[in-house]
Amino acid sequence: MDIRMTAPGSRTSARKRLVVLTGAGISAESGLSTFRGADGLWENERIEDVATIGAWRRDPERVHHFYNMRRDAARLALPNAGHIALSMLESQFNVFVITQNVDNLHEKAGSTHILHLHGELSKARCSEPPYCRLDIGDRALSVSDTCKDGHPIRPDIVWFGEAVPLMDDALLLVSQADILVIIGTSLNVYPAASLIHEVPTGTPIFYIDPDPNIAYLPQNVNLIRETAAIGTPILTQVLLKEYV
Question: Of all helices (H) and strands (E), which one includes residue 154?
Fold first, then answer.
């Protein structure tokens, strides 16, 4: 573990706003695959075949099958110590989770303020304007499923090459952070990776990852070179000691 403490300063008496950005690494420890393996595949599929608007137009049945499998895996997955530690911090901090993950493990762990930057497996949306959204829970989707206007419905996932509708909300949260925590993300996927640079000057930043991407990191980043399930409980003790 490599952790360098940033002095908390004179604001420690107030209840801190803790903003957390989580990535695939925290879900991987609950048995869910990261979106891109070392071989460039995701659940043995090319990204271009299951996670782009072009893939949807070419073969919606294949796309539905892929996300049905992921939805079923998420249904069975349980939150790990990383998710649980974040939920427990709500007793002492105003915690806001921005997650790049599309599963509901943060919800299962008990976190209450969660922004799903890249969509949710438990949601679907119409493939044509006005893009109404549907709560489908764990239900499988097929090409025969349509919205009330008769349009096909697709997974409510932000695919590669698409705009990120909640990015402005995420930017606002980060801009108001007293502390920023980044867990289990490579910081290679944009625009989410840019959030680390949007915190107020002097804001302490903690980055938990066994192999952190240290390129272009701000100087005030405290590295915890551990997995989410190990590193987040460690961070919890640091935050409770230094910032409450």
Answer: strand 153-157
- Taking 3-state DSSP, the helix, strand and coil percentages for the chain, each rounded to the nearest 5, stand at 35, 20, 45
The count of other CB atoms within 10 Å of the CB of residue 143 is 13
Is residue 65 part of the annotated active site? The answer reads no
CA Rg value for the chain: 18
Residue type, 111: S
- Whether the CB-CB separation of 79 and 106 falls below 8 Å is answered with yes
Of 222, 186, 223, the closest CA to residue 204 belongs to 222
pLDDT tens figures, 159-204: 999 999 999 999 999 999 999 999 999 888 889 989 999 999 999 9
- Rounded to two decimals, the pTM is 0.90
Catalytic one among 64, 83, 116, 118?
118
Contact present, 127 and 154 (Cβ < 8 Å): yes
Q: 229: which 2 tokens? A: 């399930």
Nearest Cα neighbor of 127 from 150, 160, 96, 101 is 150
Measured between alpha carbons, how far is 127 from 78 in angstroms, rounded to an integer?
31
